[in-house]
Amino acid sequence: MTTAGERAATVHALAEQQMREIVRQAEAGYPEEICGIVIGKPGRPETYQVHQVKNVANQHLQKDTTGNDRDARTAYFMDGLEMLGIEKKADEAGLEFVMFYHSHPDHDAYFSAMDRDRALSPSGEPLWPGANYLVVSVRGGRARDWLLRPLDLFRRLLFISGPRARARDARRYVWDDTRQDFVEVAATLPGHGR
């Protein structure tokens, strides 16, 4: 039997086709942030279902922690009715929310203060215990890692291209009960050989 803390630190690995769908949504939604929810049975990726949720940040303008206005270009706000529909579907099928995801257009993939605040209750506990949070960086309409890895640099110096020369960039965050905060864990998006 696992404790609530152990369950909260579970990393939910997505199958490649699920990651490809999130990347497709992120690129299609550029230059605005996209957002969504993955439902399924924790630890069973074959049950995971990716559901994009309408970003209504343009209708619900927000201020970030520094007081700057944020719209759909720099923030997301999930449509509440769509979230309720996904929650109902999950409940009826005996599934759970295993991951929330969103994109960062023309910015790095990171868990911002606003993202963290949105994931926590007023008491500082996760709103969705056990759920992971995935952030995908999209630059110029494409999700990619803009840092050159040693092998990528070697390929470019030799004028060799390959599917890994443009690796996807994403970061995943899980709640750590010991730290009482979200921590980053490895996330790999599929290479599309573009």
How would you characterize the overall build of this protein?
The protein is globular. It contains five helices and nine strands. The N and C termini lie far apart (45 Å). The longest helix has 14 residues, at 16-29. β3 and β4 (69-70) form a beta hairpin. It is α+β, with helices and mostly antiparallel strands. It has a single domain (4-185), classed as Cytidine Deaminase, domain 2. It has helices at residues 4-8, 16-29, 80-93, 113-119, 150-157, and strands at residues 35-41, 44-53, 62-63, 69-70, 96-105, 132-139, 142-143, 170-176, 181-185.
List keywords for this structure.
single chain, 194 residues, alpha+beta, Cytidine Deaminase, domain 2, 7-stranded mixed β-sheet, two-stranded antiparallel ribbon, 5 helices, 25% helix, globular, disordered N terminus
Q: How is this fold's topology laid out?
A:
Layout: H1 4-8, H2 16-29, E1 35-41, E2 44-53, E3 62-63, E4 69-70, H3 80-93, E5 96-105, H4 113-119, E6 132-139, E7 142-143, H5 150-157, E8 170-176, E9 181-185
Parallel strand pairs: 5-6
Antiparallel strand pairs: 1-2, 1-5, 3-4, 6-7, 6-8, 8-9
Q: Total helix count?
A: 5
* Mass-distribution shape: globular
CATH class: Alpha Beta
Q: Which whole number gives the mean pLDDT?
A: 82
Largest sheet: 7 strands, mixed
Our count of domains comes out at 1
Gyration radius, rounded: 17 Å
Helix and strand run: HHEEEEHEHEEHEE
**Range of helix content:** 10-25%
Q: Quick one: CATH superfamily?
A: Cytidine Deaminase, domain 2
Distance between the termini: 45 Å
CATH architecture: 3-Layer(aba) Sandwich
